[in-house]
Amino acid sequence: MPIDRTRGVAAARRLAQGAALWEVVDAGAPDSWTRLDEGVRSDEWFSPARGLPTWQWADGGRALAAAVRSGEVLTEAQLALALCHRDGWIREAASARVADRPALLPLLLLRCADWAEPVRVSARRWLAELLDAERAVGLLPLIVRVERRQHADFAARLARGLLRGAPGERLAPLYGSADRLTRRYAYRMAVEEGLLSPAELARVAARDDDAVVRSLCADAALAAVRESGAYDDVLGPLLAARGPWVRSAGVTALRPAGRPQDAVGFLADRSGLVRACARYVVRQGGVTPPAWYRDRCADPGDAALPPGAVAGLAECGERADAALLWPLLEHPVAGVRAKAVAGLRVLDAADVRRLWPMLDDPAAGVVREVTLAVLPSAGLMPGEWLVERVGARWPAHVRRAALRLALERDDDVRWRALLVVRDDPDERLRERAERIGALSTRR
Known about the structure:
Blueprint: H1 5-16, H2 21-24, H3 30-40, E1 46-47, E2 52-53, H4 54-57, H5 59-70, H6 76-83, H7 88-95, H8 105-111, H9 117-130, H10 133-146, H11 153-164, H12 168-175, H13 180-193, H14 198-207, H15 211-226, H16 232-239, H17 244-253, H18 272-284, H19 289-296, H20 307-316, H21 322-325, H22 334-346, H23 352-355, H24 364-374, H25 383-389, H26 396-406, H27 412-421, H28 427-442
Antiparallel strand pairs: 1-2
């Protein structure tokens, strides 16, 4: 993510004017430190005539340089400015003073990746002395943000060595960190070092909101039990996970776990990926997925019919299976109706004359699927009927669908629909009309 130099310059200017460090820097936010580091040297307040940022040739800047050179005691704000100074000698000298100001370790860490070798050498020597496991945990959000910079590998390697030997409870805050990059780093290290059991990894995969962490932990949990065959502790959390990729990993693992029959319960999963994995597994157990789906969808009055079963029939069925889908267009559950329409489209069995009346469906999801199904044949729909449904008395999802279909036509229905919404109070509909109408005109 690019550094916000404007905020960095503002922070640096306030420090140069005498503000306290903690008034301008959020110690717990790594970006606050990187912004300040860039802001102190930014060209945005650079004086071409003097070749320096404005603050450096002002009284405060000259006094700071003199204080560093003479060894005078500096405030935290002054030391922060010195650690980010354009003069490499001042940055190097300031690095040696952080031992008494550990709160400035974030800036010392940045100097470990400094472009000037003497500065890097000095900063690394002091960081190696000052950094321990507890401080490494606190600095990790900054470390993971700068570790890909040139020369930035030193701090990352140092922190990793300290954390590798730290007790498990020391790393616990990292697993629950609100910072996504930090959490990924922590779990990656936990996997590589074997710090979490397969069951713990499976639980993380099931509940974490980061797809990278979920994938990492699910793969690691399954790899750990592949040889031992102790799948029971990991399958429960994986199969109950909200994320479809994690559920699919759990379903696929049912086969090596010797439980292919348990995959039958996932043939109607809400995720297409999970359904596909379930079909693969149940075939190994002798179940024929198309026959299962046909049996499940045979009763159009089944109020408990899951929408995933309808979708699954279309995914692995034949065109003749459309006969089972048509009655489901009257099903009381909107999700079933929507999947039935989508299934007809997948099986290339959609009939515009039978589907277009469903544009009046109260469920927006159903209307979206109907729109996709009849779009190629929009010219066969009654023009007056379409224009009427663009009118303000209809629900928004019906109006949007009718407008889209009207604009697909090559007759006056397109222009009449545009006239209906030209002065409509629904701003989104007007914008949609202008956007799609312009595209239709060019076409």
